[in-house]
UniProtKB/TrEMBL annotation, chains A, B:
Protein's organism: Limimaricola pyoseonensis
Protein's recorded name: Phosphate-specific transport system accessory protein PhoU
Domain PhoU: 22-110, 126-211
Keyword Kinase in record: no
Chief location: cytoplasm
Function: Plays a role in the regulation of phosphate uptake.
Length: 237, 237
């Protein structure tokens, strides 16, 4: 009996160290989102370069998490709930890695946008989107640590706001491009950035669903409304 | 000794059923890529709708794979190599699910593109890209089944061709839009599709890297050349 107790707490310690890694990774990704958006708004190529370089550390942390998780599974042979936690953490880490990639891509486009004429209003809108996604990510990580499905559910709903911001920007960019062909290149890059932030929101949403699954054992209903409707836009309104 | 033999072959059977699932999923994703590109080229809204609906089955298969993998880990408690195989399969499944999402998105845009004027040459180019990605995926799955790192390495190299096709299209779309503002909306959607196919290629590349890791125990060198350079394009040439 005492032996079992000992094994259980060793697993708990392992799990805590894995959770600490995911929180560290999450913090780095949050910073990448904000710093990426800020360096874009400032057209600060040097700050953007720092975000790009920082992505390597995020990738390395995901590798470390994968190895650590494999090690824990191998030596502790967890089952049921414990195993579910570890497999969920791996999926969270994979989503974080992808969000980091999108932040890197945003930073990458800063250098070319620095050479082009700014598009009125777009920087502020992109920064708002990025800040909202970063807030959603922070709350998702909190919901994960506290196994709080309610907070994770709120995140799911908030993703619609991000989608709406993206829809508005998509139409704005189309209008800009039609009015002024010289704005086309800048709008294409800005539009990509907007889409990438919208995708970050989708990834955070996936993470929040994982957290709900982890806390309740069930995935949330699939039929929550989809916010990005631009795939159907034939003309800007 | 006999007991151990028995356990080992039970694991092998489990592993085979997991591999069969991933191959089934891979086949469905290959079909989604080809059918998505074909229905786009034909502006066949009904065929596109079928691709969209088919994505649910791909998602369900990923869920099934996750559950099956968790079950096998729980009852067989695999270590070292066996565990690595199962964790790799989960990552392959996650990549397949994302490729399926991109195919679904391509199909989604078919209905709006059916209402717009076609952009000369773009359909054939997108079909070529899609076919190349599907070939890469088929070879990656073959390399997985046969644990063939050589074939997986070839896939890594071929992704550059996909990137180059995307670069050429990106410049073409910019030129079209500047020459004719009425082409802007169609070009925006087509460009998204091109970018999504390019991302499918990146995901297949990630899968090929996983296969190499699985076959050799090492990830391939990180510094293979990146083919998509459009983040730096300020003006079409």
């Amino acid at each position: 009996m005492q032996e079992k107790q000992h094994i259980a707490s060793a697993f708990d310690r392992d799990l805590e160290s894995i959770q600490a890694l995911i929180l560290k990774m999450g913090g780095m990704v949050e910073a990448a989102i904000l710093d990426g958006a800020q360096s874009l708004a400032d057209r600060d190529v040097e700050a953007a370069e720092k975000v790009r370089r920082g992505d390597k550390a995020i990738d390395a942390l995901e590798e470390q998490l994968n190895e650590e998780a494999a090690r824990v599974i191998a030596i502790r042979a967890p089952v049921s709930r414990d195993l579910r936690v570890i497999l969920s953490v791996l999926r969270l880490a994979a989503s974080l890695e992808r969000i980091g990639d999108y932040a890197k891509n945003m930073a990458k486009r800063t250098s070319v946008l620095a050479e082009l004429h700014p598009i009125e209003g777009s920087d502020a809108a992109l920064k708002r989107m990025a800040r909202e996604v970063q807030n959603m990510l922070r709350d998702t990580l909190d919901a994960f640590v506290n196994r709080d499905p309610g907070l994770a559910h709120e995140v799911l709903l908030r993703d619609q706001e991000v989608d709406q911001m993206y829809n508005a920007l998509f139409r704005e960019f189309l209008t800009h491009m039609m009015e002024d062909p010289r704005a086309i290149t800048a709008c294409m890059h800005l539009h990509f950035i907007a889409k990438n932030i919208e995708r970050m929101g989708d990834l955070v949403t996936n993470m929040a669903e994982q957290v709900i699954y982890l806390a309740t054992g069930k995935m949330p209903d699939e039929d929550r409304p989809k916010g990005d409707t631009t795939a159907y836009v034939a003309q800007p309104e």
